[in-house]
Every structure is written in structure tokens, then in C-alpha cells.
């Protein structure tokens, strides 16, 4: 099977999209699928449209206009489609495959089109801060793009039930055309059950180590994570909160239990070692997100036997299953429920260890790129 793997950027560069497109491609290659990369596409009228976006977004901050997003402009999208079509003509590909709808939304080709992504445009509108207060033009463009991609594709694969449901609900696509395959962890995996047991049993039973990994303090729920750590300490459970990816937005000087480490580059070997060490030493990954699609960091945490605590928003419930690899809470939940759950596991620490080992099992059975690649290959063969 030969696939034309289409992205607007260079998918071989692990720095793009947090490495997701790179790992997705590898998951297919490992299934003996031949990939021809089509990427690094050029934006037509880039300077003009960048200027338009800059002005509209500046005015939107002053409540004088609504935001315009150039990456949904049909001028750019149709230019992408022409570039892809031109490159396809020089390849012998059975399928056109993309980790997003942008480069294939208006593509004309003989091969069946399949995409595997984490969200629809409508799923983002008024959900992510960047997609609030959008101009009517951008909303029309975004909806038209998504509808066109869904109409042209043979199969739409999403990483969560939530994303798949938005495709059916907002764009009227047939449910039989939509499949759900969760993403895997964007880190190298070489741990077995014995390794995980050693890691889990090495964590102290008298100190709770919470890890917050996110670049957006408020959208990822950093304020909630801080309050949870603070209350657990007040309840008598010695608790540490390590913050990676952003600076805590709390009153300084920071309390002793808060350990801000800033942004750590996972793409560097040193950064990856640091992240891996933090995950191995942490009891929980806590990310009480206000808005999220399919946070791959949950899969990465589970690969170290780390349960995840988060909210029932976006695609998170597809990843986290209560008492199997963590727990999700309603977005309106107060911090007392988080604290009660954590405290109960430390009161009977054997329950925590069982949950940690179960988290690794969830990673092994469904939240890794190998399983995902096998599942997608079966879907591709059905299409062919």
C-alpha cells in the first residue's frame, strides 16, 4: 500500500504539531505502508492575508472588529489543493492521507482521500480562546472548508468520540463514514511491566507529587491545579505541584510547594530526559482543562503508569476512563472533589498503586501509536 502523506508543513520535522504528524506517519510506516511525503506548502498572497489577519485581530482586541483567520481562507486552501494535486501527479499513490483537513479540503484527485485528526472547525468555534469572536467571513470559510473535506473524503478518522460527533452533528456527514481511533504518546516507549512496577513502587506514599504540563495556564486549568495542591496541603497531605510549559499565574513569591520549571523542549534529548524523569516521579498528571481536544500528554503519562486527572470537556473522555487510568470531573466541579479523590487513594495507598498499574495497561492496550497504526491500516484496507 502506497500513501501520499499530505501536510502543509514538514511532517518529518518532529517539532511540528508537537510531533504528532511525525509519530502518526511512523505508526503507518511500521505497518509496512509506504509513505510519500507531500508538505512544506506555500501560502498564496501570504503577505496580504497576514496583514489582513494582523489588522483584524488587533482591532478585535479593542472590540472594534472580529477576528479573521487566514488559514481558512479559500484563496489559501485552493492554492494548497493545487500544489498537492501537482505533486500527486508525479507519485504512484493508492491513497491520499492527511492528519488534517486544511491541505485536502478542496483537493481534486482520483485516489480516495482519508484524514485522521483531532477536531472539526465547528468544534473549535467559541471553545478555544483563539476561535472566539470570529468574523462571519472566517466562520463561513471554516465551515465551507470542513464540509468540503468531509464531502470529498472516503473516510474521516477522529481521535475522540467528541470530534466525531461534531462532524456528524454540524456537517451532516454519514456516521458510517466516520471512525474513532485515539492517538498515541509522542515519546519513545521501551518500558515493560517490570519497569513500570519499579517506577510506581518507587513513588513515596507520604508525599503527593502533582505534575501540570501545559503551555496555557488558564485553558489547561493551572489555577485549579494550584488550588488542589494548596488544599491537599491544608488537609495534611504533603503535596508538591510541578509546573512545566508555562509560568504559574499566581501571587508571587510562589509557595514552597509550587515548583515552576518553565518551558522544556521535548524535541531535545536533554528536555525529553527531564520530562520522562518528571513523569516517572509524579503520582498524577493534573490538567483540569477548560478546553481541549485530545491531549497526547495523557497517553504519555499513562506510559509511565501515571494516572491523569482532568475534566469532561472535548475529547478527554475518550482518553481518560474513570478508575482505569485516572478520573475526569465535570468542568464545574469544585476543588474539593479532586482533593477527596486523591486523598482517598493516599489513605489506602494500595489503591493508588493499582490505579497506576491500570493506567499503564490502558496505554499498552489502546493509547499507543502501534495499536493506533494497526487499527488505521485495517480501515485503509477496507477502503481499498
List key phrases describing it.
384 residues, alpha/beta, 6-stranded parallel beta sheet, 14 helices, 12 strands, 43% helix, globular
List the helices and strands and how they pair.
Blueprint: E1 2-6, H1 20-29, E2 34-38, H2 46-61, H3 74-88, E3 95-98, E4 113-117, H4 121-124, H5 136-152, E5 155-158, H6 161-171, E6 178-180, H7 193-201, E7 207-213, H8 222-234, E8 238-244, E9 258-262, H9 269-281, E10 284-287, H10 296-302, E11 308-311, H11 316-319, E12 326-329, H12 335-347, H13 349-366, H14 369-383
Parallel strand pairs: 1-2, 1-3, 3-4, 4-5, 5-6, 7-8, 7-10, 8-9, 10-11, 11-12
Helix pairs in contact: 1-14, 7-13, 8-12, 10-13, 12-13
Give a description of the structure.
With 384 residues, this protein is an alpha/beta fold. 43% of the residues lie in helices and 15% in strands. It contains 14 helices and twelve strands. The strands form two sheets. Strands 2-1-3-4-5-6 form a six-stranded parallel beta sheet, sandwiched between helices. A six-stranded parallel beta sheet has the order 9-8-7-10-11-12, with helices on both faces. Strand 10, helix 10 (296-302) and strand 11 (308-311) form a beta-alpha-beta unit. The N and C termini lie close together (9 Å).
Amino acid at each position: 500500500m502506497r500513501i501520499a502523506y499530505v501536510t502543509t508543513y514538514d511532517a518529518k520535522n518532529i517539532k511540528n504539531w508537537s510531533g504528532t504528524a511525525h509519530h502518526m506517519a511512523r505508526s503507518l510506516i511500521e505497518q509496512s505502508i509506504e509513505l510519500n511525503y507531500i508538505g512544506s506548502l506555500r501560502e498564496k498572497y501570504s503577505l496580504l492575508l497576514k496583514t489582513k489577519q494582523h489588522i483584524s485581530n488587533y482591532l478585535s482586541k479593542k472590540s472594534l472588529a472580529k477576528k479573521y483567520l487566514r488559514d481558512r481562507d479559500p484563496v489559501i486552501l485552493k492554492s494548497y489543493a493545487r500544489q498537492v494535486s501537482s505533486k500527486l501527479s508525479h507519485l504512484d499513490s493508492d491513497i491520499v492521507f492527511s492528519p488534517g483537513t486544511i491541505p485536502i479540503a478542496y483537493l481534486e484527485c482520483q485516489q480516495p482521500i482519508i484524514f485522521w485528526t483531532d477536531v472539526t472547525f465547528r468544534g473549535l468555534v467559541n471553545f478555544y480562546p483563539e476561535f472566539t469572536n470570529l468574523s462571519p467571513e472566517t466562520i463561513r470559510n471554516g465551515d465551507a472548508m470542513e464540509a468540503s473535506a468531509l464531502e470529498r473524503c472516503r473516510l474521516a478518522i477522529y481521535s475522540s468520540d467528541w470530534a466525531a460527533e461534531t462532524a456528524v452533528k454540524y456537517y451532516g456527514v454519514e456516521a458510517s463514514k466516520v471512525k474513532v481511533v485515539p492517538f498515541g504518546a509522542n515519546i519513545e516507549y521501551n518500558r515493560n511491566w517490570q519497569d513500570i512496577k519499579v517506577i510506581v513502587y518507587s513513588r513515596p506514599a507520604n508525599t503527593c507529587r502533582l505534575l501540570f504540563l501545559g503551555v496555557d495556564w488558564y485553558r489547561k486549568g493551572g489555577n485549579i491545579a494550584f488550588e488542589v495542591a494548596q488544599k491537599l496541603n491544608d488537609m495534611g497531605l504533603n503535596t508538591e505541584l510541578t509546573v512545566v510549559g508555562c509560568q504559574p499565574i499566581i501571587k508571587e513569591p510562589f509557595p514552597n510547594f509550587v515548583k515552576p520549571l518553565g518551558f522544556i523542549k521535548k524535541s531535545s534529548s536533554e528536555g525529553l530526559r527531564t520530562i520522562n524523569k518528571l513523569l516517572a516521579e509524579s503520582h498524577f498528571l493534573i490538567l483540569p482543562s477548560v478546553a481541549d481536544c485530545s491531549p497526547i500528554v495523557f497517553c504519555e503519562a499513562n506510559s509511565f503508569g501515571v494516572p491523569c486527572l482532568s475534566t469532561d470537556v472535548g475529547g478527554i473522555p475518550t482518553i481518560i476512563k474513570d478508575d482505569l487510568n485516572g478520573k475526569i470531573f465535570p468542568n464545574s466541579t469544585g476543588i474539593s472533589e479532586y482533593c477527596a479523590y486523591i486523598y482517598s487513594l493516599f489513605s489506602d495507598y494500595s489503591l493508588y498503586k493499582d490505579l497506576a498499574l491500570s493506567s499503564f495497561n490502558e496505554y499498552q492496550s489502546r493509547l499507543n501509536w502501534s495499536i493506533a497504526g494497526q487499527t488505521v491500516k485495517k480501515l485503509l484496507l477496507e477502503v481499498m
